Amino acid sequence: MVAKMTSKEIAKLAGVSVSTVSLVLNNRPGVGEETRSRVLNILNSHGVFPKAVHNHSKRDVIRFCKIVRHGHILNDRHSMFISEYIEGVVQEAKKTGLSVEVATYENYPIGQIVQDLASRSSQAGSILLATELSQEDITLFKTLKTPHVFLDANYPGEEGSFVTMDNERMVYDALRYLSEAGHRRIGMFTSSGCSNFEAREAAFRSARAILTRETEETQVIPVQSTHDGSYGDIRSFLTDHEGASLPTAFFACNDIVASGAIRALQAQGYRVPDDVSIIGFDDIPVSSLLNPPLTTLSVPKVELGRVSVRLLLNEWNRDSHISSQRSLLGGQLIERESVRSL
Protein backbone atom coordinates (compact mmCIF):
# COMPACT_ATOMS: atom_id res chain seq x y z
CA MET A 1 0.00 0.00 0.00
CA VAL A 2 1.13 3.58 -0.66
CA ALA A 3 1.57 5.88 2.34
CA LYS A 4 -1.08 8.59 2.82
CA MET A 5 -0.04 12.21 2.26
CA THR A 6 -1.19 15.52 3.71
CA SER A 7 -3.26 18.01 1.72
CA LYS A 8 -0.27 20.35 1.71
CA GLU A 9 1.96 17.68 0.16
CA ILE A 10 -0.68 16.82 -2.44
CA ALA A 11 -1.10 20.51 -3.29
CA LYS A 12 2.64 20.90 -3.83
CA LEU A 13 2.77 17.88 -6.14
CA ALA A 14 -0.23 19.08 -8.15
CA GLY A 15 0.89 22.72 -8.27
CA VAL A 16 -2.36 23.96 -6.72
CA SER A 17 -3.51 25.48 -3.45
CA VAL A 18 -4.51 23.49 -0.37
CA SER A 19 -8.05 24.87 -0.75
CA THR A 20 -8.22 23.37 -4.26
CA VAL A 21 -7.23 19.98 -2.86
CA SER A 22 -9.97 20.37 -0.24
CA LEU A 23 -12.57 21.09 -2.94
CA VAL A 24 -11.54 17.96 -4.85
CA LEU A 25 -11.52 15.83 -1.67
CA ASN A 26 -15.06 16.92 -0.88
CA ASN A 27 -16.32 16.74 -4.49
CA ARG A 28 -17.18 20.44 -4.42
CA PRO A 29 -17.53 22.67 -7.53
CA GLY A 30 -15.08 25.44 -8.39
CA VAL A 31 -12.27 23.33 -9.86
CA GLY A 32 -11.61 22.91 -13.58
CA GLU A 33 -11.86 19.39 -15.01
CA GLU A 34 -8.17 19.23 -15.99
CA THR A 35 -7.04 20.39 -12.54
CA ARG A 36 -9.52 18.07 -10.80
CA SER A 37 -8.25 15.14 -12.87
CA ARG A 38 -4.62 15.94 -12.01
CA VAL A 39 -5.35 16.22 -8.29
CA LEU A 40 -7.47 13.04 -8.31
CA ASN A 41 -4.69 11.12 -10.00
CA ILE A 42 -2.23 12.14 -7.29
CA LEU A 43 -4.73 11.58 -4.47
CA ASN A 44 -5.69 8.13 -5.66
CA SER A 45 -2.09 7.07 -6.28
CA HIS A 46 -1.58 7.61 -2.55
CA GLY A 47 -4.70 5.74 -1.50
CA VAL A 48 -6.89 8.80 -0.89
CA PHE A 49 -10.40 8.91 -2.34
CA PRO A 50 -12.93 11.82 -2.31
CA LYS A 51 -15.57 11.46 0.40
CA ALA A 52 -18.58 11.43 -1.88
CA VAL A 53 -17.15 9.19 -4.57
CA HIS A 54 -18.88 6.11 -3.15
CA ASN A 55 -22.29 7.80 -3.00
CA HIS A 56 -22.92 8.12 -6.71
CA SER A 57 -25.89 6.31 -8.13
CA LYS A 58 -25.67 3.47 -10.60
CA ARG A 59 -23.72 4.20 -13.79
CA ASP A 60 -22.62 7.64 -12.56
CA VAL A 61 -18.93 6.83 -12.16
CA ILE A 62 -16.25 5.45 -14.44
CA ARG A 63 -13.24 4.06 -12.59
CA PHE A 64 -9.93 4.72 -14.37
CA CYS A 65 -7.45 2.13 -13.12
CA LYS A 66 -3.73 2.66 -13.46
CA ILE A 67 -2.33 -0.85 -13.07
CA VAL A 68 1.41 -0.92 -12.39
CA ARG A 69 2.92 -4.40 -12.70
CA HIS A 70 6.66 -3.63 -12.85
CA GLY A 71 6.97 0.13 -13.24
CA HIS A 72 9.46 -0.03 -16.09
CA ILE A 73 7.02 1.80 -18.36
CA LEU A 74 4.42 3.33 -16.04
CA ASN A 75 6.63 5.64 -14.03
CA ASP A 76 7.27 9.36 -13.50
CA ARG A 77 8.61 9.81 -17.03
CA HIS A 78 5.20 8.86 -18.44
CA SER A 79 3.04 10.80 -15.94
CA MET A 80 2.07 13.42 -18.54
CA PHE A 81 1.30 10.64 -21.03
CA ILE A 82 -1.13 9.07 -18.54
CA SER A 83 -2.64 12.44 -17.62
CA GLU A 84 -3.64 12.97 -21.24
CA TYR A 85 -5.39 9.60 -21.30
CA ILE A 86 -7.29 10.67 -18.20
CA GLU A 87 -8.09 14.04 -19.75
CA GLY A 88 -9.72 12.31 -22.71
CA VAL A 89 -11.68 9.98 -20.42
CA VAL A 90 -12.94 12.94 -18.36
CA GLN A 91 -13.90 14.95 -21.46
CA GLU A 92 -15.95 12.12 -22.96
CA ALA A 93 -17.49 11.06 -19.65
CA LYS A 94 -18.65 14.61 -19.01
CA LYS A 95 -20.63 14.58 -22.28
CA THR A 96 -22.82 11.78 -20.94
CA GLY A 97 -23.12 13.06 -17.38
CA LEU A 98 -20.59 10.64 -15.93
CA SER A 99 -17.79 11.42 -13.51
CA VAL A 100 -14.39 9.77 -13.30
CA GLU A 101 -12.60 8.24 -10.34
CA VAL A 102 -8.88 7.52 -10.71
CA ALA A 103 -7.21 4.72 -8.77
CA THR A 104 -3.72 3.27 -8.82
CA TYR A 105 -3.09 -0.45 -8.28
CA GLU A 106 0.66 -0.80 -7.79
CA ASN A 107 1.98 -4.36 -7.40
CA TYR A 108 -1.50 -5.69 -6.59
CA PRO A 109 -2.30 -9.32 -7.54
CA ILE A 110 -4.61 -9.29 -10.55
CA GLY A 111 -7.13 -11.43 -8.70
CA GLN A 112 -7.39 -8.79 -5.98
CA ILE A 113 -7.96 -6.05 -8.59
CA VAL A 114 -10.71 -8.11 -10.22
CA GLN A 115 -12.40 -8.65 -6.86
CA ASP A 116 -12.25 -4.93 -6.07
CA LEU A 117 -13.77 -3.98 -9.42
CA ALA A 118 -16.45 -6.66 -9.14
CA SER A 119 -17.52 -5.17 -5.80
CA ARG A 120 -18.23 -1.86 -7.56
CA SER A 121 -21.14 -3.17 -9.63
CA SER A 122 -23.02 0.11 -9.11
CA GLN A 123 -20.47 1.95 -11.25
CA ALA A 124 -20.61 2.45 -15.00
CA GLY A 125 -17.55 0.28 -15.40
CA SER A 126 -13.78 0.43 -15.52
CA ILE A 127 -11.15 1.64 -17.95
CA LEU A 128 -8.03 -0.39 -17.25
CA LEU A 129 -4.68 1.17 -18.18
CA ALA A 130 -3.24 -2.11 -19.45
CA THR A 131 0.19 -0.91 -20.60
CA GLU A 132 2.06 -3.35 -18.37
CA LEU A 133 -0.48 -6.20 -18.43
CA SER A 134 0.63 -9.47 -20.00
CA GLN A 135 -1.66 -11.73 -21.99
CA GLU A 136 -1.89 -13.98 -18.95
CA ASP A 137 -2.97 -10.99 -16.85
CA ILE A 138 -5.66 -10.13 -19.40
CA THR A 139 -7.17 -13.62 -19.18
CA LEU A 140 -7.68 -13.21 -15.42
CA PHE A 141 -10.19 -10.41 -16.09
CA LYS A 142 -12.54 -12.83 -17.90
CA THR A 143 -14.36 -13.48 -14.64
CA LEU A 144 -15.15 -9.76 -14.28
CA LYS A 145 -18.81 -9.35 -15.23
CA THR A 146 -18.95 -5.56 -14.97
CA PRO A 147 -18.13 -3.56 -18.14
CA HIS A 148 -14.43 -2.87 -18.65
CA VAL A 149 -12.10 -1.69 -21.41
CA PHE A 150 -8.35 -2.27 -21.77
CA LEU A 151 -6.57 0.96 -22.73
CA ASP A 152 -3.05 1.06 -24.21
CA ALA A 153 -2.85 -2.64 -25.03
CA ASN A 154 -4.07 -5.11 -27.62
CA TYR A 155 -3.93 -8.89 -27.58
CA PRO A 156 -5.59 -10.10 -30.81
CA GLY A 157 -6.09 -13.61 -29.42
CA GLU A 158 -8.13 -12.42 -26.44
CA GLU A 159 -11.78 -11.48 -26.24
CA GLY A 160 -12.66 -8.12 -24.79
CA SER A 161 -12.58 -4.42 -25.56
CA PHE A 162 -9.18 -2.92 -26.42
CA VAL A 163 -8.15 0.63 -27.33
CA THR A 164 -4.62 1.54 -28.34
CA MET A 165 -2.54 3.23 -31.02
CA ASP A 166 -2.18 1.69 -34.49
CA ASN A 167 1.34 0.39 -33.95
CA GLU A 168 1.59 -1.29 -37.34
CA ARG A 169 0.65 1.82 -39.32
CA MET A 170 2.74 4.18 -37.21
CA VAL A 171 5.90 2.05 -37.37
CA TYR A 172 5.46 1.77 -41.13
CA ASP A 173 5.27 5.57 -41.31
CA ALA A 174 8.48 5.86 -39.28
CA LEU A 175 10.40 3.47 -41.52
CA ARG A 176 9.01 5.03 -44.68
CA TYR A 177 10.28 8.39 -43.42
CA LEU A 178 13.74 6.90 -42.84
CA SER A 179 13.67 5.15 -46.20
CA GLU A 180 12.72 8.35 -48.02
CA ALA A 181 15.63 10.04 -46.23
CA GLY A 182 17.94 7.53 -47.92
CA HIS A 183 18.41 5.01 -45.10
CA ARG A 184 18.58 1.39 -46.19
CA ARG A 185 20.34 -0.18 -43.20
CA ILE A 186 17.88 0.39 -40.36
CA GLY A 187 18.11 -1.27 -36.96
CA MET A 188 15.81 -1.31 -33.95
CA PHE A 189 16.21 -0.96 -30.20
CA THR A 190 13.37 -3.07 -28.81
CA SER A 191 12.20 -4.01 -25.33
CA SER A 192 9.74 -6.22 -23.50
CA GLY A 193 7.06 -5.76 -20.88
CA CYS A 194 4.05 -4.64 -22.90
CA SER A 195 2.00 -5.67 -25.91
CA ASN A 196 2.80 -2.41 -27.73
CA PHE A 197 6.52 -3.23 -27.80
CA GLU A 198 5.77 -6.67 -29.24
CA ALA A 199 3.53 -5.14 -31.90
CA ARG A 200 6.14 -2.51 -32.80
CA GLU A 201 8.88 -5.10 -33.25
CA ALA A 202 6.67 -7.23 -35.49
CA ALA A 203 5.69 -4.14 -37.49
CA PHE A 204 9.34 -3.10 -37.77
CA ARG A 205 10.41 -6.42 -39.26
CA SER A 206 7.53 -6.37 -41.73
CA ALA A 207 7.94 -2.72 -42.78
CA ARG A 208 11.72 -2.99 -43.10
CA ALA A 209 11.42 -5.96 -45.45
CA ILE A 210 8.94 -4.05 -47.62
CA LEU A 211 10.63 -0.64 -47.67
CA THR A 212 14.36 -1.35 -47.68
CA ARG A 213 14.39 -4.76 -49.41
CA GLU A 214 17.44 -5.67 -47.35
CA THR A 215 18.19 -9.38 -47.37
CA GLU A 216 20.64 -9.41 -44.44
CA GLU A 217 19.47 -10.27 -40.93
CA THR A 218 17.58 -7.41 -39.34
CA GLN A 219 19.59 -5.87 -36.50
CA VAL A 220 17.10 -5.88 -33.63
CA ILE A 221 18.76 -5.17 -30.28
CA PRO A 222 16.85 -5.96 -27.06
CA VAL A 223 17.33 -3.42 -24.26
CA GLN A 224 15.67 -2.49 -21.00
CA SER A 225 12.81 -0.01 -21.25
CA THR A 226 14.10 2.42 -18.59
CA HIS A 227 16.40 5.31 -19.53
CA ASP A 228 19.39 4.12 -17.50
CA GLY A 229 18.79 0.50 -18.46
CA SER A 230 18.62 1.21 -22.19
CA TYR A 231 21.67 3.48 -21.95
CA GLY A 232 23.70 0.72 -20.26
CA ASP A 233 22.54 -2.01 -22.64
CA ILE A 234 23.20 0.05 -25.76
CA ARG A 235 26.58 1.20 -24.49
CA SER A 236 27.52 -2.45 -23.89
CA PHE A 237 26.33 -3.36 -27.39
CA LEU A 238 28.42 -0.59 -28.94
CA THR A 239 31.49 -1.62 -26.95
CA ASP A 240 31.07 -5.27 -27.99
CA HIS A 241 30.71 -4.23 -31.64
CA GLU A 242 33.41 -1.58 -31.69
CA GLY A 243 34.71 -1.14 -35.21
CA ALA A 244 31.72 -2.90 -36.77
CA SER A 245 29.51 -1.15 -39.29
CA LEU A 246 26.34 0.09 -37.65
CA PRO A 247 23.00 0.74 -39.35
CA THR A 248 22.72 4.35 -40.49
CA ALA A 249 19.47 4.72 -38.51
CA PHE A 250 17.73 3.10 -35.56
CA PHE A 251 14.04 2.98 -34.68
CA ALA A 252 13.51 2.90 -30.90
CA CYS A 253 10.43 1.24 -29.43
CA ASN A 254 9.70 4.36 -27.37
CA ASP A 255 11.17 7.75 -26.54
CA ILE A 256 12.71 6.63 -23.25
CA VAL A 257 14.74 4.01 -25.09
CA ALA A 258 15.56 6.55 -27.79
CA SER A 259 16.88 9.01 -25.22
CA GLY A 260 19.06 6.27 -23.71
CA ALA A 261 20.29 5.41 -27.21
CA ILE A 262 21.27 8.99 -28.02
CA ARG A 263 23.16 9.29 -24.76
CA ALA A 264 24.95 5.94 -25.29
CA LEU A 265 25.89 6.71 -28.89
CA GLN A 266 27.29 10.10 -27.93
CA ALA A 267 29.25 8.57 -25.04
CA GLN A 268 30.88 6.19 -27.54
CA GLY A 269 31.87 9.05 -29.84
CA TYR A 270 29.04 8.82 -32.38
CA ARG A 271 27.31 11.99 -33.56
CA VAL A 272 23.52 12.00 -33.77
CA PRO A 273 22.31 12.41 -36.47
CA ASP A 274 25.54 12.90 -38.47
CA ASP A 275 26.76 9.34 -37.87
CA VAL A 276 23.58 7.60 -36.74
CA SER A 277 19.95 8.76 -36.97
CA ILE A 278 17.40 7.96 -34.26
CA ILE A 279 13.61 7.98 -34.39
CA GLY A 280 11.40 7.32 -31.37
CA PHE A 281 7.78 6.62 -30.49
CA ASP A 282 5.35 8.40 -28.06
CA ASP A 283 6.43 12.08 -28.19
CA ILE A 284 6.70 12.49 -24.42
CA PRO A 285 7.56 16.06 -23.29
CA VAL A 286 11.28 15.41 -22.80
CA SER A 287 11.66 14.39 -26.47
CA SER A 288 11.77 17.99 -27.68
CA LEU A 289 14.41 18.85 -25.07
CA LEU A 290 16.96 16.19 -26.00
CA ASN A 291 20.19 17.07 -27.80
CA PRO A 292 19.36 16.75 -30.62
CA PRO A 293 15.56 17.11 -30.29
CA LEU A 294 14.02 13.74 -31.10
CA THR A 295 12.10 12.93 -34.27
CA THR A 296 9.28 10.69 -33.06
CA LEU A 297 5.71 9.51 -33.47
CA SER A 298 3.00 11.32 -31.54
CA VAL A 299 0.24 9.18 -29.99
CA PRO A 300 -3.32 10.64 -29.95
CA LYS A 301 -3.57 10.16 -26.19
CA VAL A 302 -6.58 12.36 -25.44
CA GLU A 303 -8.59 10.83 -28.27
CA LEU A 304 -7.67 7.31 -27.11
CA GLY A 305 -9.10 8.22 -23.71
CA ARG A 306 -12.31 9.46 -25.34
CA VAL A 307 -12.68 6.32 -27.44
CA SER A 308 -12.21 4.10 -24.40
CA VAL A 309 -15.31 5.72 -22.82
CA ARG A 310 -17.32 5.13 -25.98
CA LEU A 311 -16.37 1.47 -26.00
CA LEU A 312 -17.21 1.19 -22.32
CA LEU A 313 -20.70 2.54 -22.99
CA ASN A 314 -21.01 0.02 -25.82
CA GLU A 315 -20.31 -2.68 -23.22
CA TRP A 316 -23.56 -1.69 -21.52
CA ASN A 317 -25.62 -1.66 -24.71
CA ARG A 318 -24.11 -4.21 -27.05
CA ASP A 319 -25.75 -7.49 -28.07
CA SER A 320 -24.57 -10.52 -26.14
CA HIS A 321 -23.21 -12.23 -29.27
CA ILE A 322 -20.50 -9.56 -29.71
CA SER A 323 -17.49 -10.99 -27.90
CA SER A 324 -14.95 -8.24 -28.51
CA GLN A 325 -14.41 -4.76 -29.90
CA ARG A 326 -11.18 -2.96 -30.82
CA SER A 327 -10.18 0.56 -31.76
CA LEU A 328 -6.73 1.38 -33.13
CA LEU A 329 -5.90 5.05 -33.74
CA GLY A 330 -3.07 6.30 -35.92
CA GLY A 331 -0.65 9.00 -34.83
CA GLN A 332 1.49 11.73 -36.38
CA LEU A 333 5.17 11.88 -37.27
CA ILE A 334 6.90 14.75 -35.45
CA GLU A 335 9.95 15.82 -37.42
CA ARG A 336 12.78 17.30 -35.34
CA GLU A 337 16.56 17.00 -35.59
CA SER A 338 17.62 13.42 -34.79
CA VAL A 339 17.31 12.13 -38.37
CA ARG A 340 19.39 13.31 -41.35
CA SER A 341 19.04 12.62 -45.04
CA LEU A 342 21.79 10.62 -46.75
C-alpha-based Rg, rounded: 21 Å
Oligomer: single chain
Helix content: 25-40%
- Would you report the number of β strands? 12
CATH superfamily of the largest domain: Response regulator
- Uncertain parts: 52-58
Provide the structure class: alpha/beta
What's the SSE pattern? HHHEHEHEHEEHEHEHEHEEHEE
CATH A-level architecture of the largest domain: 3-Layer(aba) Sandwich
Report on this structure.
With 342 residues, the chain is an alpha/beta fold. It has 2 domains: 7-165 and 301-330, Rossmann fold (3-Layer(aba) Sandwich), CATH 3.40.50; 167-298, Response regulator (Rossmann fold, 3-Layer(aba) Sandwich), CATH 3.40.50.2300. 39% of the residues lie in helices and 17% in strands. It has 11 helices and 12 strands. It has helices at 7-14, 18-25, 33-45, 79-95, 110-118, 135-139, 167-180, 195-211, 227-240, 255-267, 301-317; strands at 61-68, 99-106, 125-129, 148-151, 160-165, 186-190, 220-222, 249-252, 277-279, 296-298, 324-329, 332-334. The strands form 3 sheets. Strands 2-1-3-4-5-11 form a 6-stranded parallel β-sheet. β3 (125-129), α6 and β4 form a beta-alpha-beta unit. α3 (33-45) crosses α4 (79-95), α4 (79-95) packs across α11 (301-317) and α7 (167-180) packs parallel to α8. The longest helix has 17 residues, at 79-95. The protein is globular and about 60 Å long. The N and C termini lie far apart (53 Å). The model is unreliable at 52-58 (pLDDT under 50).
Topology:
Elements: H1 7-14, H2 18-25, H3 33-45, E1 61-68, H4 79-95, E2 99-106, H5 110-118, E3 125-129, H6 135-139, E4 148-151, E5 160-165, H7 167-180, E6 186-190, H8 195-211, E7 220-222, H9 227-240, E8 249-252, H10 255-267, E9 277-279, E10 296-298, H11 301-317, E11 324-329, E12 332-334
Parallel strand pairs: 1-2, 1-3, 3-4, 4-5, 5-11, 6-7, 6-8, 8-9
Antiparallel strand pairs: 10-12
